Amino acid sequence: MFNYTAGQANGFKAAGLANINADTTRGFCAAGLTNISARQIVGATAAGLFNYAHHHKNGAQIAGLFNYADNLTNTAQIAGLLNISFRKSGAIQLAGLLNYATDVKGLQLAPFNFSDTCSSGVPIGIASFVRKGVHQLEISGDELLFTHLAFRTGTRHFHNIFSAGISLNDTQSPLWMFGYGAGTSIKLSKRFNLDIDLSYNHLSKGTFNTNVNFLNKLYIGPEFAITRKVRVALGPTFNLFLSDALQADYASVYSSLAPYSFSDYTATSNNVNIKWWIGGKVAFRFF
Predict the structure, then answer these.
(1) Sign of the alpha-carbon dihedral angle for 142, 145, 148, 152
(2) Mind giving me the DSSP string for 111-174?
(3) d(Cα 182, Cα 160) in Å, to the nearest integer?
């Protein structure tokens, strides 16, 4: 059923239910339910449900559900659902849903990542929030839509971008879009960064439609800090627009969206029209 060690332990431990260690443990612990270490564990733990360690170093926590550690040193947390490190994270946190660490020292990889600081690490996921990281509100315009609103969150090395835009030329049936992207900022000087953003956007005219109207954008441009909390960015965009040529509004709306194109091709297999062109973007970022 379980193993319990009151003092230090060295070697291999396996239990159908749980391994409980009151002192430092060195080696590999495997349990069907849980591994608990009240002090320090050096090595790896694997459990069907969860692992807990006060300090885990030079190893791995592997669990079917979640891992918890007060502090990690050169240790990977791998869980089906959730990883938590209340101080420093180790080499990697890999979870099916969410990672949390007070100070990220390695890689966080999960759909959702949260931390206070990323002193020498990077969170990668659908959405990452770093309290002492990037969380900018962006207002921008380009050659298609003059009104864009975006939220950039994560770190300078890797951030997520949630965006929406609208054209008010036709207030009864406006053209609008929403999108998701990711980007990185390369620091050039105290006030200058070079941004590289890649985004995917869906366009609709009037009510939301499920047709193929996909705009993929690559933006490369400098960002300049006007003040501590206000920045301006501008640069070229490389646009690839895919649209269903058989939809009702294609001829009147989507076929002429691009201001010009280097290529205008319609695939005979699925009637998807493909255009690409170079545009531009001007943005103001706050906070």
Answers:
(1) negative
(2) SEEEEEE-SS-EEESSEEEETTSEEEEEEEEESS-SEEEEEEEE-SSSEEEEEEEEE-SSSSS-
(3) 5
Position 286 scores a pLDDT of 96
Distance CA 58, CA 81 (A): 22
Q: Which CATH architecture has domain 135-286?
A: Beta Barrel (2.40)
Q: How far apart are the first and last CA of the chain?
A: 54
**pLDDT score for 79:** 97
Q: Give the residue extent of every domain in the chain.
A: 2-130, 135-286
CA-to-CA separations, 188 to 194, 195, 277, in angstroms, rounded: 7, 10, 28
Q: For residue 188, what are the β-bridge partners?
A: none
Residue-level pLDDT at 170: 82
Locate tokens 């659908």: which residue? 126
Scanning the structure block, which residue is given the tokens 């953003």?
A: 197
Q: Mean pLDDT for each 10-residue chunk of the chain (287 residues)?
A: 92 95 93 94 96 93 95 93 88 95 93 93 95 95 93 96 91 92 95 97 94 97 95 97 94 93 93 97 96
The pTM assigned to this predicted structure is 0.89
